[in-house]
Structure formats: C-alpha cells, structure tokens
Design brief:
alpha/beta, 2 domains, 46% helix
Length: 317
C-alpha cells in the first residue's frame, strides 16, 4: 500500500482538475506553470498511474484514475476543512459537547428553565446531562467524565474544598425553608410548636443533617428526627402528608405555599435563615464560553429563587 499522497501535490491536482488547465491552475495558486507540471508528474509517480491526459492546445482531461482521485480528494479536503474549523473552535474554547452533572433538585427545578436560553433553537454544543450527587460527581469531574458539576455545600467545611485543585464558582445561596404540611383554615405553626413533632432529614452524617444539628444547637432545641432519607422528594411527600417537619431547599417549593401542599413554620425574628451554597465545579483551566454562560444563567435563576423566598418570608410575617 502506497503512502498517502502529499497534500500540497493533491491541492495542485485539484486546481488543475477544476480549472482544466495547468496555466490557469498556476495563476490561481500563485505558481509558475512549470511548478504545476512538476507537481502533477510527481503525484503520478507516487500513485503509479496516469492521472491527466495532456493534449497540446486543448484543455486537460482526467483519466478514470484521475476522476476517482479528484472525487476522493474532494472528500479529503472537505473533511480537512471541517477538522480545521473544529480545531480553530477548540483553540477558541468552543466545544461540540458539554457533559454536565447536577444534583436532582437542580436538574428538575433549575436547569429546565435555563437550557432553552442556553441553546436557542438547538444551536450550540450538545449538552449531555447526568443526575449525580456532589460527592460522586467530584470524582467524575477529576476523571474527565464530567466537564461541569452543579454541586451544593451545606457547610463551609464540606467538599469541594478550594484547595482541591478545582475551578469553583459560587452560584449563590439557596434558602432552606422549615415547613410543615398545609393546615387549611389554621394559622401557620411556630417553631416552638414543632419541637414535639417528628422531623425528617438526611441520615446521621449527611450534610443537611449536620447543618440541622448545628442550627438546633445554636437555638438550644432538640428536634426529633425519626424519618431519615437522602431523597428530598420523599422528605417533601412526608411533610405534605403531615407526618413530619423539615428543612427543604426553596427550589422544591412553589412560589405559593398552599400550591405545594406545605406551609412555612414561623421562626422567631432572631433566628438566622439557613441556606446551602450552590457551586459550579470544573477542572482547572479556562472554561469554554458555554460554561460561563451556564454559570451566569444559574446565578440569575438562584437569585430569582432567593427573591421569591424573601417575598414569601415577608408575607408569612
């Protein structure tokens, strides 16, 4: 099998094939006519077959082999051009596909409103989404299986740590709301009235459970957590059914409390509101523009959630 022909010789050959004249090909390429003739002769030697029929005073005619080579060369140069476009895009931090991991509630309540703006009419890189919790997602970012992770952090000492070799952007602080099941026609419960009720939270060493314990210690209360689950939707179902009191991320609650089947517990004015920090985590280095755009849209979405939550707080008081 002969080695692949020199691309410079193929380029000259394609000019000759398209223009039908070595003189015209030379003028188009900026060569002297003898150089074009030498390129064609060298290509024929390399290929071991005649490619062009030369007739003095007439336009050049391609042989059957020449026609086949011209067709194959068009495919090659088209692929080369597309490769060059892709390479240029990559050097300008443009990508064909973005793999994003996200915790479940962001996937179900934040990203659906963001992606249409991020990819208007399907343009731009393809976005591949994966539901993954923060602890598992960090290793996938490090291994390269994910380009970006939408993560959360309940406490400052929780991962991801700034010193962990990541590029971390804080997207905002999502409020955590203490809620009970809706009780039509009755006033919302106050915190003191909830202390004798059953509470729902994550398992003993989960981030949300540790935050709840720290908060309770500051208030001098001891909530009785009897319903443990890592699934926020299961927590919400228990609360709606009137089985428990619990802290829920604001994104899981609708703008109107009665529509979500839960209502806010009235907290004393001195109680510090709780939140969890939402983060964008990627490998070190310059991020592609689409990641920066996703980060911007996430910041705006979380700020909107925070403003709605603040408005609901005012109405609750």
């Amino acid at each position: 099998m002969k080695p692949q022909p020199d691309l410079k010789l193929l380029s000259t050959f394609m000019a000759v094939a398209n223009l039908g004249s070595m003189a015209e090909a030379a003028a188009a390429l900026g060569y002297v006519a003898s150089a074009v003739s030498q390129h064609i002769a060298a290509l024929e030697r390399n290929m071991g077959i005649e490619l062009v029929i030369r007739r003095p005073g007439s336009r050049l005619i391609l042989t059957a082999a020449g026609r086949s080579l011209a067709q194959a060369s068009e495919t090659l140069f088209d692929a080369t051009a597309r490769f060059q476009d892709a390479a240029n895009g990559i050097s300008n931090h443009e990508i064909a596909e973005l793999r994003v991991g996200s915790y479940p509630s962001a996937m179900s309540h934040l990203l659906p409103g963001i992606l249409p703006a991020l990819q208007p009419r399907g343009r731009g890189p393809r976005i591949r989404l994966t539901i993954v919790e923060t602890d598992k997602g960090l290793s996938q970012v490090k291994s390269g299986h994910l380009d970006l992770l939408i993560a959360y952090r309940y406490l400052p000492e929780d991962p991801p740590a700034v010193s962990g070799g990541w590029t971390i952007t804080s997207l905002g602080h999502e409020p955590l709301v203490l809620v009970t099941g809706t009780r039509p026609g009755r006033r919302p419960l106050e915190l003191a009235e909830c202390l004798g009720m059953e509470w729902t939270s994550g398992h003993a060493h989960s981030p949300d459970r540790r935050l709840l314990h720290r908060w309770a210690e500051e208030l001098g209360i001891s909530p009785d957590v009897t319903l443990e689950t890592e699934d926020l939707h299961s927590m919400l179902a228990m609360i709606r059914a009137g089985l428990a009191v619990g802290l829920m991320p604001a994104t899981l609650l609708s703008g109107e409390s009665d529509r979500s089947g839960v209502e806010r517990v009235v907290l004393p004015p001195v109680v510090t509101p709780l939140h969890r920090e939402v983060l964008a985590v990627s490998r070190p280095g310059t991020r592609p523009p689409i990641i920066n755009e996703l980060v911007r849209l996430m910041i705006e979405a979380l700020e909107s959630v925070r403003l709605v939550c603040r408005s609901n707080d005012r109405h609750a008081k």
